[in-house]
Amino acid sequence: MTTQKRLKSHKSDQQAYLGYCVSPGDVIDTVDLAQISQREFASNYIFSRKPCILRSSAGLVPLLGQTFSLDNFKSGTLLKTLDCEDGKQTVQIELKSDGGFGSGKKRIKMSLKGVLEAFKNNDSSIYLTTQYGNEEDEEDEDDKNDKKYEQDQEQYEDDDDDDEPEHENEQEEDQFFGPDDNVSDSGSSIDFNEVEDDYDDRLSVSGQEPMTLQEAESRCSDLFQPPLTCLLTNPDILPLNVKLFEALVPQQVNLWMGLTAEETSSSAFQADLTKPDLGLGKRVPFGTSSGLHHDHSDNLYIPVTGCKRFTVYSPSEYKQMYTVGRVNQLYNSGVIDYHPDERAPNWRTTNADGSMTDCNTYEENLHESGAESALKCDQDPPSFSRVPPLLANIDQVSDPEVKKQLTDVANVRFPGFLDANSLKIELNPGDALYLPAGWFHEVTSTGDFQDEIPGIHTAINYWFAPPDGTAEKPYTTPFWRNDFARTARAIDERRTK
To answer: Which residues does the annotated region (Disordered) include (predicted)?
Structure first.
């Protein structure tokens, strides 16, 4: 593994958030992909920290290329696209908790084929989400979980081991390959050969150090998360380089998939003041909720099937969001850092570019994220709101008496929350959403009942390291670019096998 050191954060360099904030009456910008240049997009949205919808008459072709098709990721073709028809590809699955998802509860493992079969059987209690750690070397545990799922869909246990897997083939483990030039699938503007020359603060050039095959494989699966990893060798189906986002360093590409349950009745929305979540859990009308939270990366979100309804709030509204963690610092990039205390026991202090101040490598930064740390202590990440997501969707409650009760309770329990300015966003297949780091969002998913699996909703997203600099120099240190040069070498090795 590389031993590159991350520059430490200096508290004297605290920044105030100066990006876009929602004003009363604002609506989300819609950008025509055919009418905007990379420079305009970077200036108006990326470095203004302003969300927008991306669409065009040609769909997402101007963004992801002529060969990209949403059809490849629909339920009837997904297993073939991902070479998972044999049922051997396993993924981590989140179980529904309090009527929704996005909790810190431990996950189980199932085959991707088994997930689709569960959806066919109308099981809306499971959700394919981000994948943490290496799943490929835990086949025995996977088998146990699959059997347990078949026996009792409500009682899962996951005894997964978080330690690094041991390789049986020591000869293969000791193989190295050396420095790289660059990687490209559709022509990235990032020149990794010159990456260290753009900065005054010189660090060791991690892209030029030898790399083990184990590290290379880990980098590939960390970037294109399972079950998408195989597509690194087929960028015609899913490209790594996304037009308009050339200034940013890619961090992760994920597949999201769930099933919409029946509409929740108004009786489930009776607030109980004796409970921390008011007894509302994560239940919302007309769909399934992600919970209200923010990410530490810039997000490009692409629905494949179903509809996504976003309610988003600027990072500057964090005091009205009632986060699980205690906010330590809001950076100009929108990244929010938390105090490592009893409310965030595994939190690692965060820099303005989303990296951890005391992590040495890309892998540490990726695997010590707030979301995965929360899984270690079975609680919601500090970046999640304690406000029930229903309160972000009061406009969707049809019963006027229930709506009034919820409004009154919200103003008592979470004063100021309903006064926070938000954007409401309806996202459908063929659209994409750019959401900068730190923007709080609640996502309600509703399924496509015309799909081969009625009620399924599927999405792909790209996460990018949030820029803490300017359009001329997106990152103030070379950490993410230098380290991604190493990942680029691993991708190139995988593609030339």
So the answer is: 131-197
Instruction: Give me the residues paired with residue 457 across strands.
Output: 258
CATH of domain 11-153+171-495: 2.60.120.10
User: Nearest CA to 206 among 187, 175, 178, 246?
Assistant: 178
C-alpha atoms less than 13 angstroms from C-alpha of 283 in its C-beta half-sphere: 19
Position of tokens 């007309």? Answer: 286
> What is the distance between the alpha carbons of residues 74 and 322, in angstroms, rounded to a whole number?
37
Cis peptide bond upstream of 210, omega within 30: no
Nearest to 297 by CA among 323, 333, 324: 333
Q: Which residues pair with 460 in a beta bridge?
A: 255, 302
Helical spans, DSSP H, in 320-414: 362-367, 370-376, 400-413
Task: Report the alpha-carbon distance of residue 302 to residue 308 in Å, rounded.
Answer: 10
Report the b/e string of 29-54 with b at 16+ CB within 10 A. eebebeebeeeebbeebbbebbbbbb
Q: What is the pLDDT of residues 156-210, one digit of tens each?
A: 334 444 444 444 443 433 344 444 444 555 334 444 344 333 333 323 334 457 8
User: Going by C-beta distance under 8 Å and a sequence separation of 6 or more, which residues neighbour residue 275?
Assistant: none
| Coil vs helix vs strand at 77 | coil
Other CB atoms within 10 A of residue 472 CB: 8
CB-based contact 459:256 (threshold 8 Å): yes
What angle separates helix 112-120 from helix 139-151, to the nearest 10 degrees?
10
Spatial distance between the Cα atoms of 286 and 446, rounded to a whole number of angstroms: 7
Q: Where are the domains of the chain?
A: 11-153+171-495
Quick count: other Cβ atoms within 10 Å of Cβ 492? 16
For the stretch 300-345, pLDDT in tens is 999 999 999 999 999 999 999 999 999 999 999 999 999 999 999 9
Smallest Cα–Cα separation from 250: which of 83, 474, 481?
481
pTM: 0.82
Q: Where are the beta strands (DSSP E) in 306-348?
A: 307-313, 327-330, 336-338
